[in-house]
Design brief:
Layout lengths: L2 H15 L4 H7 L4 E9 L2 E11 L5 E2 L2 E4 L4 H17 L6 E7 L7 H14 L9 E2 L8 H15 L23 H17 L9 E5 L3 H12 L3 E7 L2 E4 L6 H9 L11 E3 L1 H5 L5 E4 L18 E4 L7 H9 L3 E3 L1 H4 L2 H15 L5 H25 L5 H20 L2
Parallel strand pairs: 3-6, 4-5, 7-8, 7-11, 11-12, 12-13
Antiparallel strand pairs: 1-2, 2-5, 8-9, 9-10
Helix pairs in contact: 1-14, 3-14, 4-5, 6-7, 6-12, 6-13, 12-13, 13-14
Length: 408
Amino acid sequence: MSIFQDNLNRLTTVAALDSISESDLVLLSTPARVSYKNMEVNGKEYPAWRILYSSDLGPGKGGIRYHPDVSEDEVQSLAFWMALKNSLADIPYGGAKGGVKFDPKTADKAELEAVSRAYARTFADVLGQDKDIPAPDVYTNSQIMSWMLDEFEKVTGRHEPGMITGKPVELGGIKLRADATAQGGYFVMQEAAKMFIKNRKPSDISVAIQGFGNAGALMAEKIFADGYKVVAASDSRGGIFNADGLDVAKLSLFKAEGKAVEGFQPGAPISNEVLLELDVDILILAALENQITADNAHRIKAKHIIELANGPIDLAADKILDEAGVVIVPDILANSGGVIVSYFEWAQNRTGQILDEEYLRNLLEKKMRANWQRTYDVYKEKTGISLRQAAYILAVRRILAAKHWRGR
């Protein structure tokens, strides 16, 4: 079954829980626009997508990922999640996503730049600060956003820094964006721990993190600095386990040198599959989609899961874990810090007003904790639902309200 079909099935369940009509369900189940191009760059072809799922709440917003396994099903699912995430975050955006099917790890800088500029040229007609605003995602970064901004401005003949976020500070970005996803996730994790892991010191709470990339590593650093016992971490090549706790600060330096996490000492090398099944208090999923499925869900021992990645648990696994009493903090809530700070960047680009970084960090914290509380309130109000279903209910309500006001 496709990832997107999983999403539609989840949506159908939420519709029944919140008395959403069949006609409204149909409106929520179809993307607004699917743009696909087979880009030709220096004699090579690169399948590329930009999908706008919804624009009811504002212009589309969502990242661009480079990956050899990118597909239309994946990009459409990510655009769907962005629509819900932006709605739940209470920011004026619809949802969108982009992707290019290629492996940036095997590309040199010249190829990376050529593909990035080609993407901006190819989709220039559907992008813009009032249409659809990209950002970094898997294997894309501020340098790639810079190339895309430059190419877009060349094509359109106008200065428009608000057409893309996640830029360097010198091009209109903001410093806060670098760790926003991790920071937002940590605020939510703190709130979840208060509700579900009571009367225990951080040093008595064990944590495993799958995905020691940008968001996962920064999240690990924040957890470690606060005294939590991080016993395992992994990247795409494998992981490391130490029952006494890893020194995350040293691990981050080790990883920054280009070394694989599994080579860090002291500790025992483990696979990503084994890491997922460790008996820990909190499992943080910060890698890719569908890491926990019906195949391994029965072997998951963690009782609390934070989805820092998009869609790391499929529908079948969701049901198994829910029946086992596992608390899952859903992706559209846990990893929304990045898009909230992207909104701050976009707003500054639009107005020219530069706000104090500490003020914005406090605003991020306020929004993340408020969004957690709204989700938790619905979770407690509607007996028998999951935190994911509570988050979906809130997000869908806001999107439908906008549709109805528009007469759609």
